Known about the structure:
elongated, alpha+beta, 3-stranded antiparallel β-sheet
Amino acid sequence: MIELTKLNGSKLVINSDLIEYIEALPDSLITMTTGMKIMVKENIPEIVSGVVEFRKRVRQEGRFPSKEPAVMHVPDDPAVKKDHSIPETEGSVSRDGT
Length: 98
């Protein structure tokens, strides 16, 4: 993801993996693989530099993962029993089809 500047001065972040090509007009026109076109103030070398730096960070973080455990806290769901089974509801079909 790289941060760029629209012509009106507002910032936007784009997925650099979806850049198909960039055209140098007075400003830069980015065409995404989705067909979307985005006009930005940054020139082509600035955009390419942003993509390269982003990819370096991704590779660096992949080599040296955070020491924090990759655990996501999920709050208890009252619909799920403590034994992790889902309670049957009225009108539901059991595993044996009844």
